[in-house]
Structures are given as structure tokens and as C-alpha cells.
Amino acid sequence: MSCDFAALANAGIRGLSPYQAGKPIEELQRELGLDHIVKLASNENPLGPSPRVLEACAQAAQSLTLYPDSNGFELKRALSERFDIAPEQITLGNGSNDLLDLIARVFLAPGTSSVFSQYGFIVYPIATQACGARAIVAPARDWGHDLDAMAAAIAPDTRLVFIANPNNPTGTRVSRAALVRFLEQVRDDVVVVLDEAYTEYVDDPDFPNGLELIDRFPNLVVTRTFSKAYGLAGLRVGYSVSHPQVADLLNRVRAPFNVNSLALAAALAALADGDYLQRTVEINRSGLGQLAEGLGRLGIPYIPSVGNFITAEMPDDALPIYQKLLQQGVIVRPLLPYQMPRHLRISVGLPAENDTCLRALKQVLGA
Ligand SMILES: *Cc1c(COP(=O)(O)O)cnc(C)c1O
Could you tell me the end-to-end alpha-carbon distance of the chain, in angstroms, rounded to an integer? Predict the structure, then answer.
């Protein structure tokens, strides 16, 4: 008999379940032979890439034989100018998921713990467990983060707190006042990760900008991504902003060349393309309204969202409904991994895609 490799694996990794991604369009095409498929499952930007990004990628492709700039000098400089932060505070990642993992690797180990919210983004428990650390789950309030419960959940061995603002998959958000009150309470040896993957979509004077809080709270680390509003999910690029000492620690565990040269060039171009971002936010606002109104008309309750997705509560187990939607060529996201068995998360698409999804739901539910 060959070796039992699972027995050799780190304890945390042995107990890990892999991240479940949204079903790829090609997979459903292969399975059902459908030619028109609407994918509203991974919170991607429905506009497609900006032409300026495609141009930058074509340019950068000329140099594919060379390693990328491992320090991402130009992108860091552009981010630093745009957001008025020092380049030494920035760490680039292969998507912001990479940064969440790096932060966990730097601060978590067996004998330590992290705190996150029930219904919080699923990468937090995965990253915690991979490091052999203990996960402390604070109960949610109205599906969103209850920062008082999270503060109360912090244990003596807690090193990290993860907050997604807005949160995926619930679309909920915390206000600036609540966040500041929380940060004032947290011990300064607990690192607070504020995951702002959807921040660009939120237009609300009470919504906090984490970057403005880092000087006041040096234990705050903000992560952001080019995958969502900037439309670059396929390229994998994100960044964190932190105290320079935290950035230095992240840099020690970061894989060399973790952000590829097309991604660096594309992110730089995306950052400069204000029109694309504005169109993205506008089309999202109207699409979110369209989905909310359509769900309301079908009598389907939903969690009010400020992201680029909306999470709806089915009358019963959502999995058979998800399967029937697939048969109609509509891919959404079941939330079983979040212990939300009756919910489906629907990403905001173009108006026609939203319409297709609502019609399919109507048919499936016989409403
Ligand atoms: C999508 C998402 C991310 C990260 O995505 P990347 O593509 O890895 O940048 C991070 N946090 C939340 C809450 C997300 O939904």
C-alpha cells in the first residue's frame, strides 16, 4: 500500500474543504449543449474588459519572455498617487485572495485564532484553517456583521479579525461610525483586515473608506481588488494597504513575481480609466434596482445589498432551484457552503441578463 499522504499533511489542511467557485460557462455548455448562457455567479463585471485595458495587455504581451517587475513599481506609484498613501504601505497580490492568505500566514499559526462573522466571506475560514489556527465565528445580525459581537468574540490568542465591507455573500455593510467604534475597542496587537473588494460600488456618505483610517489605526490592513468593479477577475490582481512594517512582513512570504506582467499593465490602465469605472457603477446601480424590483414582484425576499450582487431567499431548499435555473442556462450561486441553504446569490448583469434571470426564476418557481 502506498503512503497515506493525508496523514502527513498539516492538521489544518487535512480538515480543509476547497473553495467552491461559481460554475464556469464552458462547463455548463459541455454538460447541456446550450449556446446561450447567462452567468451571474461570481460577481464579475458584466461590461467586459475596458478597451484601454485590452490595449495595455497587447502592449505588455510583447515582453512576455521577461519576468514581471516583482516590486510592481509603476502600479504601486499609481495607487499611491491616486489614494494618497505611501508606496511602502502597498503590497500587490495575485488577486486580493492572495493577500488574505499572506496576511493569515504572517499572523496565524496553531495556538492563535481569527475572528470573523457568520455569513462572512468564506476565504476567511479557509485561510485560518490552512494555518492551523482556530476560527471564532461571531453571530451575524440581520445577515450582516455585528461589530459588537465581533469585538466581544476576540480572545486572548486572537491575532486577526476579518471584516468584509460590503460583505459577500450578503451585500450588507457597516457604517463608518460603527467601524470606528469597533477599531477604538480592539487591542492594538490584533490586526484588523478590512476587505473592501466591493467598495467602489457603494455611494453612501456613511460608508467608510478604510484607507482614511490607517494612519489613526496602525493595526488596520485594507485589501482591495481589480477583480470586481475594474473588471479584471481573469488576470488576478489586488492590493493591500497597511502600516509599512506589515507590508514588509507580507513581502517576506509573498511568492516572487506573484502578479504577472499582463495583470500589472492591465491594472495600471484600469486605474486610469475613470469612464469605465463610472459606467460600471451606474450600470450596477440600475441593475441592482432591476433585480430587487423583479424579486419583489415575484414575492421573493432578498437581503438589501450595496454590492454588485443580491442574495435572495427561496421558499424552500435552493439547490433544486439552482439546478433548474442551470437547465435554463442561468448560472447563479447556491450558498450551502455559507449555511444559507435557502439562499441564492445573483450577480448584477446587463439589463437583458438580469431580465433572463428573473424570467427563469419566475418559471422555475411557477410564480
Ligand atoms: C471577490 C472577493 C475577493 C477577492 O477576489 P480576488 O479576485 O481574489 O481579488 C475578496 N473578498 C471578497 C469579499 C470578495 O467577494
Answer: 56
Q: Per-residue pLDDT tens for 285-316? A: 999 999 999 999 999 999 999 999 999 999 99
Ligand 1 and 101: CB distance under 6 A: no
For ligand 1, say whether the CB of 127 is within 6 Å of any of its atoms: no
Whether ligand 1 lies within 6 angstroms of the CB of 95 is answered as yes
Q: Is the peptide bond before 169 cis (omega within 30 degrees of 0)?
A: yes
Give the nearest ligand 1 atom to 225 CA. 9
Contact 302, 335 (CB under 8 A): no
Site of grid cell 467552491? 20
Which tens digit of pLDDT belongs to each residue from 40-72? Answer: 999 999 999 999 999 999 999 999 999 999 999
Q: How many CB atoms lie within 10 A of CB 126?
A: 20
Amino acid, res. 186:
V
Q: Please list the residues that pair with 309 across neighbouring strands.
A: 347
Q: pTM for this structure?
A: 0.97
